[in-house]
Amino acid sequence: MLTIRNLHVSVDDTPILKGINLQINKGEIHAIMGPNGSGKSTLSNVIAGKEDYQITEGSIEFEGTNILELAPEERAHLGIFLSFQYPVEIPGVSVTNFIKTAINENRKARGLEPMPAKEMLKLMRERMELLSMDKSFLSRSLNEGFSGGEKKRNEIFQMAMLQPKLAILDETDSGLDIDALRIVANGVNKLRTSENAFLVITHYQRLLDYIVPDYVHVLYKGRIVKTGTKELALELEEKGYDWIKEEAAV
Predict the structure, then answer these.
(1) What is the pTM of this model?
(2) Which positions fall inside the ABC transporter domain (predicted)?
(3) What CA–CA distance (Å, rounded) separates 16 from 221?
(4) Which terminus, N or C, of the chain has the lesser number of Cβ atoms within 10 Å?
């Protein structure tokens, strides 16, 4: 589904990513861990198409299409979703209208008619139940006055409604208490199919107790320096990153 080859990325002429190679297939969950400043959020932003990054070398292909020249909304129409680490507040735009607009723009890009209101409302209710969300969310302005947990749950609700092929979760667990973490993880697990894939970026192994990855990659100084299974995440939790840094220096 996603193939990244020798990706080099800079910000203001400062190299951040220094040769990322990564392949994600349908049905897989990949976790990326690493110390602060290693390039994790940069990688997620570059896949999603955020500006301000200079791609100096390499390629990103999504289902065989080179997406580096595509705008963020074009990538979204292909089925790429990014859950933000710090979701922004948009006063005056209700959650309902935001979701409705996003879904219908995606449908328009695929040559489909807008989703009928009755079908949209039914889907919203199903997805909110999945995430144990109160119906009052729908009439609130997007993220305005939301707690940290509510913002993250709302991000997963958007993902549940949009049903992307590739969902990138950028530190969705940050700021969540254990109950909110379980609800978010449960939503992700129920949305997982053999046709979609997830890229989960996290600092902490605890999220991976609930969302079990097929692969764990350690990013350090702009490179993937180690890949393993969930056991690698447990090892990082126990030992920290010093041993990874020592191995990378050899």
Answers:
(1) 0.92
(2) 2-246
(3) 7
(4) C
Write the single-letter amino acid at 208: L
Q: Is there a contact between 102 and 164 (Cβ–Cβ < 8 Å)?
A: no
**Sign of the Cα pseudo-torsion (95, 96, 97, 100, in order):** positive
Per the listing, tokens 């609930």 go with 210
User: How much is the pLDDT for 185?
Assistant: 86
With residue 92 as reference, give the H or E element that holds it.
Answer: strand 90-94
CATH number of domain containing 28: 3.40.50.300
Rounded CA-CA distance 160/51 in Å is 26
- Measured distance CA(105)–CA(72) in Å, rounded: 13
Give 161-198 pLDDT, tens digit per residue. 999 999 999 887 777 778 878 877 888 898 899 999 99
How many other C-beta atoms lie within 10 A of the C-beta of residue 95?
25
Between CA 190 and CA 6, with CA 199 as vertex, the angle to 5 degrees is: 160
* Residue 170, token pair as written in the block: 């950028």
- Measure the CA–CA gap between 84 and 152, rounded to whole angstroms: 8
Confidence of residue 131 (pLDDT cuts 50, 70, 90): confident
3-state secondary structure of 206: helix
Range of the domain at 204: 2-249
DSSP E strand boundaries for 109-245: 141-142, 166-170, 197-201, 215-220, 223-228
Number of domains in the chain: 1
3 state SS of 138 = helix
The answer to whether 92 touches 141, Cβ cutoff 8 Å, is yes
Which residue reads 């990082």 in tokens? Answer: 236
Alpha carbon distance 208, 197 (integer Å): 15
pLDDT of residue 115 exceeding 90, the answer is: yes
